[in-house]
Write a structure and sequence with these properties.
The complex is a heterodimer of chains A (380) and B (337). Chain A has 380 residues and is α/β, with parallel strands linked by helices. Chain A folds into two domains: 209 residues, Rossmann fold, CATH 3.40.50.2300; 147 residues, Rossmann fold (3-Layer(aba) Sandwich). In chain A, strands 7-6-8-9-10-13-14 form a seven-stranded mixed sheet, with helices on both faces. In chain A, strands 2-1-3-4-5 form a five-stranded parallel sheet, sandwiched between helices. Chain A is globular. Chain B is mainly alpha-helical and 337 residues long. Chain B folds into two domains: 198 residues, no CATH class; 68 residues, no CATH class. Chain B is globular. Classes of the chains: A alpha/beta (380), B mainly alpha (337). The interface between A and B is large, with 45 and 47 residues.
């Protein structure tokens, strides 16, 4: 045990010596690369690494190369806070990007805010994150209210749904918010929620919820499912196995290969979800990104989170260039005045005092295991 | 007198070490040492019920949650309370206790719940008891999730003041370890051990089983509540999801690796199992070693830790320390032989 301890200490020491001998721009990336969140955070991290690589090929920023320090938060809030501290104190980064889930973004953001380091959360979508953490916290994605509004309006106007069933995960902030705003908008445009049911993250048997759905006197035209990436596939599968083929509408938590893997291509038909990007989009920025991603990793981007990770780092590099400084406060000020940044997931601007971007929402239809572009909407 | 001097000596050494860490280390390493301290409190307190009394509880994360939420509700600054939790009962919405007091209250609240739960549950034995305590943990989470007026539900409470620092943590570590040590070596401790070894014999010898079982459970819960409060003011954002099976099992693993029924074993194992994964971080992050760029292998630390745990279980099935204690005499004696 003692030998291992000494060896580990020596390794850390050797590492820190090497790390400080270069003159580079130091950026941090913190993501849940292992654990329950890994299926969405690994593509995020791939996107981030790609953004740094492409920027370095163009000469880096401020005449220096960029070095990205990646840390694993292990889907654990303590590790998220510790990892952020490591990036700031040990790796001496000037800005950090990361996380696709609000719980971890809040824990890590609090640390960065206290240290005065800008933090751009690539995929966390709770609209109140920046307000709750402070003026060093930014979002690269739209807020959950916006995507829930888009989903509800799409169901009512495009699918012609008047009556809906709503299932939400009561153990996750993301799903609770999503459900709240879906319901609010669906009822406002004239729809009716027949039943609002709940489950908890990690449940594997949804038969009681499905039984209650089947017992409804009126049949719903659409099923709103506010679920995280690990559960959505199983929910869809069990709904279809029970003979319910009504359209399902979900949020960006559905944007994972797990959806089709768990539900199977046949059962995943007639599922729609709101997300940040469609890779079927023919625009040049999107296609260039896909090609670069394919070249680097040998396959197409797994999900929208790859593009969000790419954009989060892109936003930071862009801000450093405009700030013309590596002072975290100057970078923060430049980030806050970002206007019309051409990202892969759309044009990103921050209104004065608001650190949630104004962006359009993409709606995806799942067909035979493929994610097809259905519509792009900008809800009111 | 000699023992008193020994304790004083130990505390002053600890004081110097913390002083050194506080002054010389950056906040990353300081916080790791805080987490180590919090884990020491958690593991030693779980040892009271699981190790010494033989009540294999899996509800520790539940008591942590009770402590974390109690302390956060008691010491949030008033302006933040009005913003985050506008629907609190009047008296709760208009108090903001000092940190020390709110941590103590957190401990008592957790102990109160332990008595409440313990009375029916501690009649069960063996794995029935384990499952029942696990059930308690699930109930705590569900209640927190579904009382948004008091706890903000799944969204959790953030912006908790960052009161916890290394001094507070080790202040509580000293209190915990000293209190547990004195309890173990008192007539109460003997009663706990008697219950663990043979509850029928203990009962026939005049040990009041219900009283001592509940007492053991409540003492463990008190310090779990304290640790939960410290953790909440360290991370500053708490959600019910943080107090899960994973949290409980991490504590149980540390307990088993250290040795059930050994306080020093718990301390050693909490120290090693918290520090090693952090120290191995650079390994998985693709460090440069002797001029070679190692590949990034996230998850490597978990693999190495799991392998180490299996090896410990093969070669030391009763944990690193078994049920013995580390003592100065023992170390010196081993060296001379």
């Amino acid at each position: 045990m003692k030998k291992i301890f000494v060896l580990a200490l020596a390794l850390v020491f050797a590492f820190s010596l090497v790390a400080f001998s270069e003159d580079v721009v130091r950026l941090g990336a913190i993501n849940n690369l292992t654990g329950a969140q890994a299926s969405i955070d690994v593509p995020t991290y791939n996107g981030m690494k790609l953004a740094v690589k492409l920027a370095n090929e163009k000469g880096g920023v401020l005449g220096k190369k960029i070095k990205l320090f990646g840390v694993d938060a292990k889907t654990d809030q303590t590790a998220a806070a510790n990892g952020t501290r490591k990036l700031i104190d040990v790796d001496k980064v000037v800005a950090i990007a990361g996380f696709s889930d609000t719980d971890y973004a809040l824990a890590a953001g609090a640390v960065a805010q206290k240290a005065g380091i800008p933090f751009v959360t690539s995929g966390a979508t709770h609209p109140e994150i920046p307000k709750r953490v402070g003026d060093f916290m930014f979002m690269a994605a739209f807020g959950d209210n916006v995507q829930a509004y888009a989903g509800a309006e799409f169901a009512y106007k495009k699918l012609g749904a008047k009556k809906a069933w709503l299932l939400k995960d009561s153990a996750m902030e993301y799903t609770m918010t999503l459900a709240k705003y879906m319901k609010e908008r669906f009822e406002k445009v004239g729809g009716k929620i027949l039943l609002e049911d709940t489950y908890q993250t990690g449940d594997t048997d949804y038969s009681s919820q499905i039984a209650r759905l089947k017992n409804l006197k009126e049949k719903p035209d659409v099923l709103f499912v506010a679920a995280g990436p690990d559960d959505c596939g199983l929910i869809v599968k069990q709904l279809r196995e029970a003979g319910i083929f009504t359209p399902v509408i979900g949020g960006d938590g559905f944007d994972t290969p797990l959806l089709v893997e768990l539900a199977g291509p046949k059962f995943a038909n007639n599922v729609f979800f709101t997300t940040h990007i469609s890779y079927g989009n023919k625009s040049k920025v999107v296609q260039n990104f896909i090609n670069a991603y394919k070249k680097e990793y040998g396959h197409e981007p797994e999900s929208a989170f790859a593009a969000l990770g790419f954009d989060a780092i892109g936003l930071i590099i862009n801000a450093i260039g405009r700030a013309n400084s590596l002072d975290p406060k100057a970078i923060r000020d430049a980030l806050a005045t970002t206007k019309g940044y051409q990202g892969v997931t759309g044009n990103i601007s921050y209104k004065p005092g608001d650190r949630v971007p104004t962006k359009s929402v993409t709606i995806i239809r799942v067909k035979d295991g493929k994610f097809l572009f259905e519509a792009e909407v900008l809800p009111q | 007198m000699k023992r008193f001097l020994g304790v004083l000596f130990g505390i002053s050494i600890l004081f110097l070490v913390i002083f050194f860490i506080d002054k010389r280390f950056n906040s990353y390493y300081r916080e790791i040492f805080s987490i180590i301290g919090i884990n020491i409190i958690l593991v030693t307190s779980l040892n009271i019920s699981n190790g010494f009394t033989g009540l294999f509880s899996l509800g520790h994360a539940g008591f942590m949650a009770v402590g974390a939420y109690t302390s956060a509700l008691l010491d949030l600054p008033l302006d933040k309370k009005a913003m985050l939790l506008p629907n609190l009962p009047y008296w709760l919405g208009h108090i903001s206790l000092p940190f020390l007091l709110s941590v103590i209250m957190a401990g008592f609240m957790a102990a109160f719940f332990a008595v409440l739960v313990g009375y029916p549950v501690l009649r069960l034995k063996g794995h029935y008891l384990s499952v029942a305590t696990l059930g308690f943990m699930v109930i705590v989470r569900v209640v927190i999730n579904n009382t948004p007026n008091l706890t903000r539900g799944a969204i959790g409470i953030n912006n908790i003041p960052n009161y916890t620092n290394i001094w507070w943590v080790y202040f509580w570590v000293v209190i915990t370890v000293y209190a547990l040590w004195r309890i173990i070596n008192s007539s109460y401790g003997r009663a706990f051990l008697a219950i663990r070894e043979d509850h029928i014999a203990a009962s026939l010898s005049g040990v009041n089983l219900t009283k001592y079982k509940i007492l053991s459970f409540a003492i463990g819960a008190f310090f779990a509540g304290v640790a939960g409060a410290l953790w909440a003011h360290q991370i500053t954002a708490i959600t019910p999801r943080a107090f899960s099976f994973v949290t409980t099992f991490n504590i149980v693993v540390m307990l088993v690796i250290g040795g059930m029924g050994s306080i020093s074993g718990s301390i050693v194992s909490a120290f090693l199992l918290t520090l090693l994964p952090e120290l191995m971080r650079p390994l998985e992050e693709g460090m440069v070693l002797f001029g070679y760029q190692l590949p990034q292998l996230y998850g490597l630390t978990q693999l190495i830790m799991a392998t180490l745990l299996i090896l410990v279980m093969i070669f030391r099935p009763k944990g690193l320390m078994g049920d013995r204690e580390l003592s100065l005499k023992g170390i010196l004696g081993q060296k001379s032989s």
